[in-house]
């Protein structure tokens, strides 16, 4: 009983510390610009949590999370552009007027409603992942084939967006002025967006922890390690994988929707192959099989990219690739796994050596 109590205390203590850092310390010590930058990094961390569940626990190398991130982002962006146009008294957003589009495209119309837009953000990425997952996992596609397929999906999605004038083409959607009635130029509203992103990250981590340490989490790890044995026991591995894959897409869609008002732009460059791989690099560096490893890895890589690219714009890409190679080649469990290994070794060195057994009594020589 005491063990369970200590475990709960550690978990609640960890969430309390994270909440204090995000809701009290960060706004107090960071400027408005740095706080918005941290909000952007938190969006990446939300995506990373889902990848950690699908890849770290489920063994699914998801190279196409940019698709689900982009779906949530573009739905949010379309709603914000429509709302801005209505405030100006226009029927179409400003970029459509420049392109000569005088009528709102049919697939834009539903997202003029805030409720429909929120429902679309929550369920469209998850529905796409569900349909794709059913077609892939039921056919027992896995390993490198699954990774290539998901990456091809990200590439196709980015190419599709580039060719669509109604979504801004290669420039994407930008210059948002309001967020559900709140002025985005107001620093107080920008801070509100940061708090929403921070609260979402804590909620996503809590949900993922519940999944990881439940019976489902045990089944997911079993499918990763011994899929055929799990099938022999009467479970369908495809359904178990599907839940993790859809959950990761659900998280990515929410992250994309939060990314749009925080950063102020979404374009095909944010949803293609390169961003999808960047999500994966953060998870691998942090530790894909742990709960907090993906979060810390995503935040660390995003911060390093922002910091080093300011001084070495052309060198960061090579440094990022080198870091990924080093971690995968020498520390496959990531930084979190390396820290756990060092703790185990320290504990073993601190434990007293076992006492030598007492010598056996001498056996009588004569009988």
Describe the 3D structure:
This protein is mostly helical and 367 residues long. It has a domain at 43-271. Helices cover 71% and strands 2% of the residues. It contains 14 helices and 4 strands. It has helices spanning 2-29, 32-57, 65-88, 94-99, 114-137, 144-162, 187-212, 215-225, 227-232, 237-263, 273-286, 293-311, 316-330, 334-350, and strands at residues 173-174, 178-179, 182-183, 265-266. The strands form 2 sheets. It has a two-stranded antiparallel sheet with strand order 1-4. Strands 2-3 form a two-stranded antiparallel ribbon. It is globular and about 75 Å long. The protein starts with a helix and ends in a 17-residue tail after the last helix. The chain crosses the membrane at residues 12-30, 37-55, 61-80, 115-137, 143-163, 192-212, 242-266, 278-304, 316-342. InterPro entries: ABC_transp_permease, ABC_transptr_urea_perm_UrtC, LivM-like. It is found in: Cell membrane.
Summarize the topology.
Blueprint lengths: L1 H28 L2 H26 L7 H24 L5 H6 L14 H24 L6 H19 L10 E2 L3 E2 L2 E2 L3 H26 L2 H11 L1 H6 L4 H27 L1 E2 L6 H14 L6 H19 L4 H15 L3 H17 L17
Antiparallel strand pairs: 1-4, 2-3
From the alpha carbons, calculate the radius of gyration and give it in angstroms.
24 Å
Total strand segments:
4
Low-confidence stretches: 361-367
Helix content: over 70%
How many distinct helices? 14
Largest sheet: 2 strands, antiparallel
Residue-averaged pLDDT: 86
Strand order of the largest sheet: 1-4
Strand share of the residues? Answer: under 5%
The SS-based structural class is: mainly alpha
Element string (H = helix, E = strand) = HHHHHHEEEHHHHEHHHH
């Amino acid at each position: 009983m005491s063990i369970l109590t200590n475990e709960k205390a550690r978990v609640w203590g960890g969430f309390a510390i994270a909440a204090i850092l995000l809701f009290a310390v960060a706004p107090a010590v960071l400027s408005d610009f740095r706080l918005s930058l941290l909000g952007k990094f938190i969006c990446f961390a939300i995506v990373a949590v889902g990848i950690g569940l699908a890849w770290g626990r489920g063994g699914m190398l998801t190279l196409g999370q940019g698709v689900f991130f982009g779906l949530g982002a573009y739905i949010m962006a379309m709603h914000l552009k429509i709302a801005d146009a209505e405030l100006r008294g226009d029927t179409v957003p400003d970029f459509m007027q420049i392109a000569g589009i005088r009528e709102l495209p049919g697939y834009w119309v539903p997202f003029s409603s805030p409720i429909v837009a929120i429902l679309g953000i929550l369920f469209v990425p998850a529905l796409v992942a569900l349909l794709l997952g059913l077609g892939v996992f039921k056919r027992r596609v896995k390993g490198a084939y699954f990774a290539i397929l998901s990456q091809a999906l990200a590439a196709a999605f980015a190419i599709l967006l580039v060719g669509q004038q109604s979504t801004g083409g290669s420039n994407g959607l930008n210059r948002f002025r309001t967020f559900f009635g709140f002025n985005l130029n107001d620093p107080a509203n920008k801070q509100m967006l940061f708090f929403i992103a921070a609260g979402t990250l804590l909620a996503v981590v809590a949900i993922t922890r519940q999944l990881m340490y439940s019976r489902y989490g045990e089944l997911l790890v079993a499918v990763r390690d011994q899929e055929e044995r799990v099938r022999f026991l009467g479970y369908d591995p495809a359904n178990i994988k599907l839940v993790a894959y859809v959950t990761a897409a659900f998280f990515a869609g929410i992250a994309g929707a939060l990314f749009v008002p925080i950063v102020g732009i979404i374009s095909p460059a944010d949803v293609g192959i390169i961003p999808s791989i960047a999500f994966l690099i953060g998870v691998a560096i942090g530790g894909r099989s742990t709960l907090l490893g993906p979060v810390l890895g995503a935040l660390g890589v995003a911060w390093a990219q922002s910091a080093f690219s300011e001084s070495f714009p052309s060198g960061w890409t090579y440094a990022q690739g080198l870091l990924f190679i080093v971690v995968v080649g020498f520390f496959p469990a990531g930084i979190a796994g390396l820290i756990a290994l060092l703790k185990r070794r320290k504990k073993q060195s601190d434990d007293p050596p076992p006492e030598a057994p007492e010598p056996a009594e001498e056996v009588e020589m004569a009988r």
